[in-house]
Amino acid sequence: MDEDRLSATFAALADPTRRAILARLSDGEATVKELSAPFAMSGPAISKHLRVLEQAGLISRGREAQWRPCRLEPGPLREVAAFAERYRRFWDESYARLDAYLQFVQDDIEEPRDA
Q1: Cβ atoms 30, 36 nearer than 8 A
Q2: Residue 113 and residue 43: Cα distance in Å, rounded?
Q3: Which of 3, 29, 77, 79 has the fewest Cβ atoms surrounding its Cβ within 10 A?
Q4: Distance, CA of 110 to CA of 73 (rounded, Å)
Q5: What does each C-alpha distance from 41 to 32, 35, 47, 56, 82 come to in angstroms?
Q6: pLDDT surpassing 70 at residue 113
Q7: pTM
Q8: What is the pLDDT of residues 1-42, one digit of tens each?
Q9: pLDDT tens, 44-99?
Q10: pLDDT at 8
């Protein structure tokens, strides 16, 4: 996993507008006009967001006559998921140890050991 690419992906995902654009593209291709509809911002501002997403490899733009559809590119999101998976395993194991300890304490309270 290329750390620079992962950093670019996280930077692109840091903005709520860009995350909303990706959420919309998860439903299928869309034009810039369709992507900008829910936002109260200028066309150049939306284009800037799209450039960031494109540079991070999260979207691609095609060209079909005068229609330039944007589409989601899932590769970088898979890398983020793989990165986060390591930490999910860490927390799962930590919670399992905590559960075991709490069960031990609860069992000790219910059936105290002879001193």
Answers
A1: no
A2: 71
A3: 3
A4: 55
A5: 12, 11, 10, 22, 33
A6: no
A7: 0.75
A8: 566 899 999 999 999 999 999 999 999 999 999 999 999 999
A9: 999 999 999 999 999 999 887 777 899 999 999 999 999 999 888 888 888 989 99
A10: 95
Report d(CA 23, CA 95) in Å as an integer: 31
Nearest-10 crossing angle of helices 43-55, 16-25 = 80
Beta bridge partners of 61: 70
Q: Are 3 and 11 in contact (CB under 8 A)?
A: no
Residue type (1 letter), 56: A
CA distance readout (Å), 105 to 37, 102, 112? 56, 5, 10
Is 74 within 8 Å of 53 (Cβ atoms)? no
Question: Which residues contact residue 113 at a Cβ distance below 8 angstroms, ignoring those fewer than 6 apart?
Answer: none
